Amino acid sequence: MNFILNILWLIFGGWVTATSWFLTAFFMLISIVGIPWARAAFNIGLLNLWPFGSKVLSRQQTTGPDIGTGILGTIGNILWILCCGWWLALVHLFWGLVFGITIIGIPIAKQHLKLAKISFAPIGKAILFS
Q1: I need a labelling partner for 71 at 20 to 30 A (CA). Which of 15, 77, 92, 101 fits?
Q2: What is the rounded distance in angstroms from the CA atom of residue 73 to the CA atom of residue 37?
Q3: What number of helices (H) and strands (E) belong to the chain?
């Protein structure tokens, strides 16, 4: 069932949002200043490609501590939240509420809530695909 939902997600706009996140990650890499946030944007793009059945976990749980899971990751998340994380999360919360109104839209609403969570503070997160 997750496979079918992911295919429908891709057909109805998931590929557009994923592409925009991948382009954002690319431009962050080019800008040099945005390099610390490029991995986070890439992770959000991956999650936009295949959200159903995927889990967002702390990288500390999956691979152990690294630079993004410590104090520098916290500082990076604070900067992310101040610059763009709060409004990205609000956009996904809005769409989660819109889709959650109908019974058929509840699975999509859950994915938007997952995307809101990682969009708010993405540094130090890993995505596990199942």
Answers
A1: 92
A2: 10
A3: 7, 2
Q: How far apart are CA 30 and CA 41, in angstroms?
A: 13
C-alpha to C-alpha distances, 130 to 6, 7, 43, 87, 90, nearest whole angstrom: 12, 15, 15, 29, 27
Do 50 and 4 meet the contact criterion of CB atoms below 8 Å apart?
no
pLDDT tens track for 34-79: 888 898 899 899 999 999 999 999 888 888 888 788 899 899 999 9
Buried/exposed code over 93-115 (b: 16+ C-beta within 10 A; e: otherwise): bebbeebbeeeebebbbebbbbb
Residues 6 or more apart whose Cβ sits within 8 Å of residue 90:
116
Please state the domain count of the chain.
1
Label residues 55-89 b or e (16+ Cβ within 10 Å = b): ebeebbeeeeeeebbeeebeebbeebbeeebeebb
